[in-house]
Amino acid sequence: MSEKTKIGVFGVGHLGKHHARILNNLDRADLVGVHDVDPQRGEEIAEREGIPYFDNSEQLMEKCEAVDIVTPTIYHHSLAAPALKAGLHVFVEKPITKTLEDADDLIALAKERKRVLQVGHIERFNSAIMELRNILDRPRFIEGHRLTLFSPRVQDIGVVVDLMIHDLDLILALVPSKVARCDSVGVPVLTGFEDIASARIAFEDGCVANLTASRVSLEPQRRIRIFQTNGYFSLDYQKEQIAVFQKLGQNDNRMGDPMPGITHRIIKMNREDDQLTTELNSFLECVQEGKIPVVTGEDGRRALDLAIRVTEEAERNLRKMA
């Protein structure tokens, strides 16, 4: 493989145009072209980046060593499967696929062809999350809120697969135990799918996670709090900072402390690269150096599986109320 990885972006809409911009400036990448089903949009982004536009996805794949798939979910498998069969490495945005069967197929193809398959769960590359994993020890209770304004752009899926899946992936990565059961509710407000949802996930080791997601909120919010035996952590994704509350040792109490027995500190993350840049660069590093992705195909499948379970439970509870 050449020093730079020849890569193409498939889908250059709201998110894909940023993928193209970042890849076109990464030292590890050689952006050879973009493809989009909307020729006007595809040509516009191609002209902006100074690269070719391909109206045929197969022709672009022939130029690539790796592909970056940022299309609607229903097209993930139909693009990723032929790419893997052709021996290309694949980055695919979350969720990995529409169905678990399609996800299984991509995972099997990646293993058979010995190719990198990475799923775009971008919060894993949030610097606050990366720091949190270094200080976390067996969570007992997790509370997460992911709220955003309504976007007419996303009306073909519910808020669980659209937004909550970020936090579902995170808790699966942070809790060293299997899911025992889940209960959830969801309400359609502006679309035919749930636009607000709440889920309670119980793990076999006793940990419980309460998650709320909404795409009809007036003020964006992305926060998560994690409690464990010696303290708790309050994480603000947008500010990329963690408030750490930890139990002091027996002789560490100081007179006048506002919270006797508890120490409080703020960990503020400072870095030049944004999450998407870090995520895409990590994918290329895996391709070039044979490393295992931070978010594997198996990780993507687990998040999708849990998202489907939460969605189905919310639908059952909604039918009971009808």
Written account of the structure:
There is one protein chain. This protein is an alpha/beta fold and 322 residues long. Helices cover 35% and strands 27% of the residues. Helix 4 (76-85) runs parallel beside helix 5, helix 5 runs antiparallel to helix 9 (297-321) and helix 7 packs across helix 9.
Briefly characterize the structure:
By secondary structure, this protein is of the alpha/beta class. It has helices spanning 16-23, 39-49, 57-61, 76-85, 100-113, 127-135, 159-174, 275-289, 297-321; strands spanning 5-10, 29-35, 53-54, 66-69, 89-93, 117-120, 141-147, 179-187, 196-203, 208-214, 221-228, 231-236, 241-247, 262-268. The chain folds into two domains: 5-115, NAD(P)-binding Rossmann-like Domain (Rossmann fold, 3-Layer(aba) Sandwich); 125-271 and 305-321, Dihydrodipicolinate Reductase, domain 2.
